[in-house]
Design goal:
Among the domains are: 40-113, Helicase, Ruva Protein, domain 3 (Orthogonal Bundle); 119-150. The two termini are 22 Å apart. Helix 3 packs across helix 4. The protein has helices at 2-31, 40-48, 50-60, 79-93, 98-109, 124-150, 161-167. It is elongated. By secondary structure, the protein is an all-alpha fold.
């Protein structure tokens, strides 16, 4: 009984230590200033024209952060993403349309900058690659299972007495 209590106490202590390790960065993040992306100049632009900012964020959601690569520039706090959002804001302020801005970014950074790249010869593997991998994997599985099904029972390793003793429950000691 005492051993169980010691085990539960150790598990509780480990759980509390783990919880505090995860909670500590979150607590410090809440105390930190808003974000690295919220510079005074950007904050003033947001406050001045909320409609423009909504357009900037919608367009930013279509572009990949070139630093993070798994985030849009709307979600990223990388310095390059902040600069690209600022550049989009300036281009929209000058009256350029969304299509013009996307074309400019694609011309400058390539199709990789688009979060949903177009279907064309250079991106066909990107679009069809996952489906091809799935077909190859399923085909390989079918081939292996059919070959295995055709094998005779003596092709497989028989269970030995030592395997049976290790896996069989010990009835004598009960």
């Amino acid at each position: 009984m005492a051993r169980r209590l010691d085990l539960w106490a150790a598990l509780l202590a480990a759980g509390l230590a783990l919880a505090s390790a995860f909670a500590s960065p979150l607590a410090h993040a809440a105390d930190a200033p808003a974000t690295a992306a919220a510079t005074p100049r950007e904050a003033a632009a947001v406050a001045a024209n909320p409609a423009l900012e909504a357009q900037v964020m919608a367009l930013s959601a279509e572009l990949r952060c070139l630093v993070c690569q798994n985030q849009t520039i709307a979600d990223s706090h990388a310095e390059l993403a902040v600069d690209l959002r600022r550049q989009i804001r300036e281009m929209l302020t000058k009256g350029q349309g969304e299509r013009e801005i996307l074309d400019y970014m694609t011309q400058r950074y390539g199709d990789f900058v688009l979060y949903r790249p177009p279907f064309k010869p250079t991106t066909v593997l990107l679009w069809l690659g996952p489906a091809l991998l799935l077909v190859v994997a399923l085909g390989s599985l079918v081939v292996v299972l059919r070959r295995r099904d055709r094998l005779a029972d003596d092709a497989f390793e028989p269970d030995t007495d030592s395997d049976e003793r290790e896996t069989a429950p010990d009835v004598k000691n009960r």
